[in-house]
Amino acid sequence: MIRPLYSLLVIGAQPLLRRKLRRRGVAEPGYLEHVEERFGRYQHAAQSGRLWIHAVSLGETRAAAILLEALRRAQPDLRVLLTHGTATGRAEGRRLLREGDAQAWLPWDTPQAVQRFLAHFRPSCGVLMETEVWPNLAAACLARGVPLVLANARLSPKSMAQARRFSRLARPAYGALRAVWAQTEDDARRLASVGASVQGVFGNLKFDAAPDPLLLQMGRDWRSTSTRPVVMFASSREGEEVEFLRAIAGVQGIQWLLVPRHPQRFDEVAGLVAQAGRSVSRRGAWDGVPEPADVWLGDSLGEMPLYYALADAALLGGSFAPLGGQNLIEAAACGCPVVMGPHTFNFSEAAELALQAGAARRAGTMGEGVRTAVELVRDPPARTAAARAGERFAAAHRGAAAKTAQAVLALIER
Q: Which pTM does this prediction carry?
């Protein structure tokens, strides 16, 4: 009885969800595109048999890109359906499409919308990236014989507690998955405890990402133009920038680089810098090289390797507020030492391994984090040692992409 009740609640929330889309669409017009796809209604005919990969947002889409590259190396004629939940995820996913591929919003989890989605696209197999397990979607795939798997899977202690609290809803959803391939042994244990069939621990796909060498070189070239050490706040989240600007007040001799996580906040963050009495220079306005300013603002997408190469050290966004932290693996692979705050539960094992490897340092507060980063960039031997440790750390944990691709293709063949 619990899933029908859940379905009624989701159906009843549809008007509120439409209103939410309209509000978000003011700042991010992408939310106003193809709105009816959210309800399982599609304008164009679709080919059946595509491999369906669901990557809800930007981070998951970047992980999906790594998996998709490995899949296409093994099967060049593979055709995929990419689905997303956020505008940034869909924009990033558009870059991955080839002729014969398709892209859509994943519908909200009502029985009717899910059934229309599956009947329209008729995928051969579904791959959910990292965390996205929905009760009606999982049940409908099981009923229609569509193998559904969870790849690069992770489950934090907090999410496990929530799943256990709603076990009558969550356990059948996880149990409907054909396979789960976890990032870590801890993730595997937590996922198994809520009913998932864990078939392997493959590691984190994000270790297999190769930074763009052209962006790395551009960042290094730009770094050589600064006479001051560069400290970056990478993938900052709402609320953290004000704390960061307060913490850097009075610190001299540092070039600050601020890169917000979400593009719809670029203008807002530029305004916060100005309100703090700091001059700001935005990446989008640079003509060849960074323009002088107290704070450089990275207001572009897809250029994180450039920013990490430009920086001497990076504070990790999402870790100084209780948000779980952002991906630190990319920074390590780019040779940029990381200073993390206390909240890294989204990447708990990667964070601990980076600490053990000497690629990252931990700080309890934003102020402590700024002081740690400044001390590091003012100590060139220590900074160089941390950068090299990061590169070794990233290289040592590669291999998840090949394992996951092999497992997906084997499932399709069966």
A: 0.87
